[in-house]
Write a structure and sequence with these properties.
InterPro entries: AA-permease/SLC12A_dom, APC_superfamily
Order of helices and strands: HHHHHHHHHHHHHHHHH
Subcellular location: Membrane
Largest sheet: none
CATH topology: Amino acid/polyamine transporter I
Number of domains: 1
Radius of gyration: 22 Å
CATH superfamily: Amino acid/polyamine transporter I
Protein name: Amino acid/polyamine/organocation transporter, APC superfamily (TC 2.A.3)
Structural class: mainly alpha
Keywords: Membrane, Transmembrane, Transmembrane helix
Helix content: 55-70%
Membrane topology: Multi-pass membrane protein
CATH class: Mainly Alpha
Length: about 475
């Protein structure tokens, strides 16, 4: 960063390709919650298989603390880096090209795998209507429609997510009240008989942390839309924090209702636990609503995943870390249309493996590695830009404790993943290691350092001591 390009050159680079600034706090809420809410319709229940019913709710709350801490410093850094790419952009300015390349790849695969999990659940729940239904055409049409919507513009995309996410969340509330939980004499919930406590002890809780992430995984992706916010300093903090509170409330309700209606052994292996809980009520209208809610949650998640993964891929291409063809902006819609279209078949391909827990595990692994690097970047960010040296839209309180919490809990979750998924861990680490070798030995020769930092040079000040 000793030789930043001059202001004129950076402005020319910035004006040659830019995204539309059209998003407000509600859109950021819809992006974050829309991606994550599907995790309350599926995937979270594997915490019960790993740690039992009590281990599941402990993992839900403990991992919630991880995400509260992550959102604090993620939002602080994101609010002063109004550029598409989120944690990738942070790594670009704070850690350099190799780290930025790895963070970008991790973000892309986190969201591509999440979209793949969405397509798996859509296929499975459609089969509940009739085993003769061919799910493939519906899944392809859904992904094609969402890809087209993202192609046409992020504003319409996230307006749709506000509607889809809102309806899906309301179905969870309807399921809660349908059980009459508020009446001791009429309540359908029976936690005492349905739950199984801590069958694997404290090690089970550690193992449950992995899928506890699924309650919240993706909320940190709100920073990926920073460049498209009308007011980054306002939209990011408000949208992300309100979104996280929404998820913590929804996650607790989800565990409470599902654990009181479905036996733990069945719940821990379910593909669509909230729908199974609705079936257990025996009320047709509730069953139909949760069927719709599950489908809408999957669509909202896939919609947000397409937006987030394409922004990360676009940013890497714009900075010449990957081929520049993907950095093209549509002249009319101002969207990274090539990145959007390119990632669609990759997500579909992983979706049709049929291995839901394996797909989820790779997404979680990629996310945890991003969290560890982001926590480290927070320490470096505060050293390079102390409070008062740069305008911040939001200041994370209690530094460095949130970063230390994220490091400790992310490391504990990775350790817990070893029990049952050690092959996935090794495969994931091997993949990113090989990708790093490819970058160092091949792609780095095409890296244009002036392009790499030019986009933010007009607003990114020289750090303290440089």
């Amino acid at each position: 960063m000793d030789h930043l390009p001059d202001l004129k050159a950076s402005k020319e680079a910035s004006s040659s390709s830019h995204l539309s600034k059209v998003l407000g706090p509600m859109h950021i809420w819809a992006l974050g919650v829309g991606i994550v809410l599907v995790g309350q319709f599926m995937g979270w229940n594997f915490t019960i298989a790993k740690g039992g019913s009590l281990g599941s709710i402990i993992a839900c709350w403990v991992i919630g603390i991880l995400y509260i801490s992550l959102i604090m410093f993620n939002t602080e850094m994101g609010s002063v880096m109004p550029e598409a790419g989120g944690q990738y952009s942070m790594a670009k300015y704070l850690l350099g090209p190799l780290a930025a390349f790895n963070v970008g790849m991790m973000l892309v695969f986190e969201y591509v795998m999440l979209a793949a999990a969405d397509s798996l659940v859509v296929g499975e729940i459609l089969k509940t209507i009739s085993p003769d239904i061919q799910a493939l055409p519906y899944i392809i049409l859904s992904i094609l429609f969402l890809t087209w919507l993202n192609y046409r513009g992020v504003h319409a995309t996230l307006n749709l997510n506000i509607v889809l996410t809102g309806i899906a969340f309301i179905t969870i509330i309807i399921l809660l009240f349908s059980t009459k939980f508020y009446s001791p004499t009429e309540s359908m919930l029976n936690l005492k008989e349905m739950t199984n406590g801590l069958p694997y002890g404290w090690m089970g809780i550690l193992g449950a942390f992995q899928f506890g992430c699924w309650f919240y995984l993706g909320i940190e992706g709100t920073a990926l839309a920073a460049e498209e916010c009308r007011s980054t300093g306002r939209s990011l903090p408000v949208g992300a924090i309100v979104g996280l509170l929404t998820l913590i409330i929804g996650a607790t309700i989800t565990w409470f209702v599902s654990s009181g209606l479905v036996p733990a052994d069945l719940l821990g292996a379910s593909t669509y636990p909230l729908f199974d809980a609705a079936v257990a009520t025996g009320k047709p209208i509730v069953i139909q609503l949760l069927f719709v809610g599950t489908i809408l949650a999957c669509l909202a998640s896939a919609n947000g995943c397409i937006a987030d993964s394409s922004r990360a891929w676009y940013s890497m291409s714009r900075d010449t870390l990957i081929p520049e063809a993907f950095s093209a902006i549509h002249p009319k819609y101002k969207t990274p249309y090539r990145a959007i279209v390119f990632l669609m078949p990759i997500s579909l391909a992983f979706g049709f493996t049929g291995l839901l827990d394996q797909v989820i595990t790779f997404s979680i692994l990629s996310a945890l590695l991003v969290y560890l690097l982001t926590a480290y970047m927070m320490f470096k960010f505060r050293r390079m830009y102390p409070i008062g040296s740069i305008d911040r839209g939001y200041i994370a309180p209690w530094h460095p404790f949130p970063a230390l919490v994220v490091i400790a809990l992310a490391a504990a979750t990775l350790f817990g993943m070893y029990f049952g998924y050690w092959i996935n861990l090794l495969a994931g680490f091997a993949f990113y290691l090989l990708a790093s070798f490819w970058f160092v030995l091949h792609r780095s020769k095409s890296l244009d350092m002036s392009r790499f930092i030019a986009h933010g040079a007009s607003y990114w000040p020289r750090p303290k001591g440089y």
